[in-house]
Write a structure and sequence with these properties.
heterodimer, A: mainly alpha, two-stranded antiparallel ribbon, globular, B: alpha/beta, Rossmann fold, 2 domains, 7-stranded mixed sheet, 13 helices, elongated, Leu_Ile_Val-bd (chain B), Leu-bd (chain B)
């Protein structure tokens, strides 16, 4: 029982972590919460349903399609709702946040209109592969989800610290104007960030579809809120924090259901936020100097 | 000057109209046109009973499909009833858009119209709870065809329904399931943030206790959740013989899918909310072994239902669902009461005749009202077998 629940928790936590990575990346560079991230994640999941169940494409192609579409959405998000508000005089720093909320409402209603209100099944043969060890059943999907989330986290960390683009991104995150004076094409870097973050949302979406076999237009909202809780928990703009925070939340939700009352499942994320804000407001991995922005 | 003259003429015309309608309603004719009064009166004084029935339905918005099914069921019944020639029913249909407020507005409009004999609808229980007390106060009969919440007929003497409440559907399904499987231990899972699924859970728990079943665990979930694995793992480890799930089909289908993947093979018993072909669409093979109680089983071989399916498909080009069937029966029940009341004018006489409805033979089976106006009828129990709904065999 415990081992099975731990596996459940790690799977859920890994998905939370991937969603939170997208949040944290955008926050790290732009200093805003991208409220549309949850809905981009949802669109990614729907693209997965559409390509595998309706068009009958193989899974790897579905992944590719989902990443392409969500990246494109990220690009459009940057072009239409973030860039026009950036660096203008008299525009409140809350304006991009509000504008992403608008995008999220738009995307939710659009997919409501296009795909209908109910849950859509996500059927792939891949989701059926499983191993049985004693009385414990482990699905290949669960392992895949964990592995993908670790790869994404490590890859992102390496990319940020070692490559030129990653360094440029960090420079931009540090100070937009200085980076721009030093020859970093900040416009390009910001666009790239939003695109990568959205693409990761797409990956998370398709993984959720496979793991839980349920995709609905409303799934973005709760996932988005959890992602938000995680980056507060792990530390805003911190890649490692997103990963650890995601796993902590996934495990604690699962264990609460297993050994406590399932009615409090959704409350735990927000109890954690309250605690962390009281005890360590910068988050587990956050640095105290993050105030400078 | 000419302007005043025009105004005067309009006022005069309005007065005359009022006088005319007053004439119309004081006579026995239901037609308020003054000119042809005598000829129509000749007809109505024969056998044909004229009646105007108000309908409030969910015709626009997210749940418009319900309203569409209901009004189509009603119109089909209306056509057939009128063709038979004993009663002639006119439907006055109003949209409630699924909002209690708008349902009340529509209801008030219908109640204020003295020519309306009785009301059918509104669609949702929440709307019904808003409209029915007012109808009761105004002394106009109101009947729900899709309202399954507890306490609806108890609103008042003029309030009825022909939709089977969960308190009837769930115990029937549970009894049959327990009889066949010999189950002793049950686990329950339900959505604890929805009035409908919570009510279903209460019924399940009560019934399980009455039947002497051991409840191994009670698990909950909330709307919008997509991962039920933690709850299901817990259920699996208590080894129940049956899983009782009070869920709407949307979440329910996902729950049963994840349960099967996890290795829970025992049958699921659900309420009416679980009763939808969508369950099979979402969960696929995993849906096999779901047992639900329902007032209407579309694939039944009962000749009455087969014929209803055929007529409905001819008229609207698609298969009827439970809501269309219940609405269809509802209008027949009204027509039956009309015949016994003998007039389409007297709201009180109609109410009394309706309350006496006993062993009415509709497509849903033998139907009676109990003393508060709630449903007394047999529940059909169906299960999903090999990817489709079939009648439950013991």
């Amino acid at each position: 029982m415990l081992i099975e629940q731990l596996i459940n928790g790690i799977t859920l936590g890994s998905i939370y972590a991937i969603v939170a990575l997208g949040f944290t990346l955008v926050f790290g560079v732009l200093g805003i919460i991208n409220m549309a991230h949850g809905e981009i994640f949802m669109v990614g999941a729907f693209i997965g349903v559409l390509t595998t169940s309706v068009l009958g494409w193989p899974l790897w192609l579905a992944f590719l399609a989902s990443i392409v579409v969500t990246s494109l959405l990220g690009y459009l998000l940057e072009i239409f709702s973030l860039r026009p508000l950036r660096g203008k005089k008299g525009v409140s720093h809350l304006a991009p946040l509000i504008s992403t909320i608008g995008v999220s409402i738009f995307l939710e209603n659009l997919s409501h209109h296009m795909f209908g209100a109910g849950n859509k099944p996500f059927r792939t043969a891949f989701a059926e592969i499983r191993f049985e060890i004693g009385s414990i059943t482990i699905y290949l999907v669960q392992i895949t989800i964990f592995v993908i989330s670790v790869i994404l986290m490590v890859g992102l960390s390496v990319w940020l610290s070692k490559t030129k683009a990653g360094k440029a991104l960090r420079a931009t995150a540090e100070n937009l104007e200085t980076a721009s004076i030093l020859g970093v094409d900040t416009k390009k870097i910001i666009t790239l960030t939003v695109i990568i973050a959205s693409g990761m949302g797409g990956i998370a979406g398709i993984l959720v579809g496979m793991a839980f076999n349920s995709v609905s237009p409303q799934m973005g909202l709760s996932m988005g809120l959890k992602g938000l809780a995680i980056i507060i928990l792990g530390g805003m703009g911190n890649v490692k924090g997103a990963m650890v925070g995601g796993l902590i939340l996934g495990l604690s939700e699962t264990l609460l259901v297993a050994y406590g009352d399932s009615g409090y499942r959704d409350a735990i994320a927000f109890i954690m936020i309250i605690l962390i804000l009281l005890i360590r407001p910068q988050g587990i991995f956050g640095s105290k100097t993050a105030e400078g922005r | 000057m000419q302007k005043y003259q025009k105004l005067f003429l309009i006022i005069l015309a309005t007065f005359m109209l009022i006088l005319l309608t007053a004439c119309g309603s004081s006579s026995t004719s239901t037609n308020s046109g003054g000119q042809s009064e005598t000829s129509i009166e000749d007809e109505t004084s024969g056998e044909v009973i004229q009646a105007k029935i108000g309908v409030i339905s969910y015709l626009s918005g997210a749940g418009a499909a319900y309203g569409e099914a209901i009004t189509q069921g009603l119109k089909l019944a209306q056509k057939e009833i009128n063709e038979k020639g004993e009663v002639n029913i006119e439907l006055v249909i109003e949209d409630s858009a699924g909002e209690a407020e708008q349902a009340v507005n529509a209801g008030q409009k219908l109640m204020a119209d003295d020519s309306i004999l009785a009301i059918i609808g509104p669609t949702l229980s929440t709307e019904f709870f808003a409209v029915a007390p007012e109808a009761d106060l105004n002394g106009i009969t109101i009947m729900g065809t899709s309202t399954t919440a507890d306490g609806i007929p108890e609103i008042g003497d003029y309030v009825f329904r022909n939709s089977i409440p969960e308190a009837l559907a769930i115990p029937a399904a549970m009894e049959k399931a327990v009889k066949r499987t010999g189950a002793k231990k049950v686990a329950i899972i339900y959505g604890n943030d929805d009035a409908f699924t919570k009510a279903g859970f209460e019924v399940m728990k009560r019934t399980a206790e009455e039947m002497g079943l051991e409840i191994t665990t009670i698990e909950t979930y909330q709307k919008g959740q997509s991962d039920y694995k933690a709850q299901l793992t817990k259920i699996k480890n208590t080894n129940p013989d049956l899983v009782l799930a009070s869920a709407l089909y949307n979440e329910g289908a996902v729950i049963i899918d994840q349960a099967r993947k996890m290795g829970i093979t025992v049958p699921f018993v659900g309420g009416n909310g679980f009763n939808s072909p969508q369950v099979i669409e979402i969960a696929g093979d995993a849906a096999n072994g779901l047992i639900v109680g329902t007032p209407y089983f579309g694939d039944s071989t009962d000749p009455k239902i087969v014929e209803f399916n055929k007529k409905y498909e001819e008229e609207y080009g698609k298969k009827p669902d439970q809501f269309a069937a219940q609405a269809y029966d509802a209008l027949y029940i009204y027509a039956d009461a009309l015949k016994r009341a003998g007039t389409g004018e007297d709201r009180d006489a109609f109410r009394d005749a309706l309350a006496e409805t006993k062993d009415f033979e509709g497509i849903l089976g033998l139907f009676s009202f109990n003393e508060v106006g709630d449903v007394v009828m047999d529940v059909t129990v169906v299960e999903i077998k090999d990817g489709k709904f079939v009648e439950f065999e013991e």
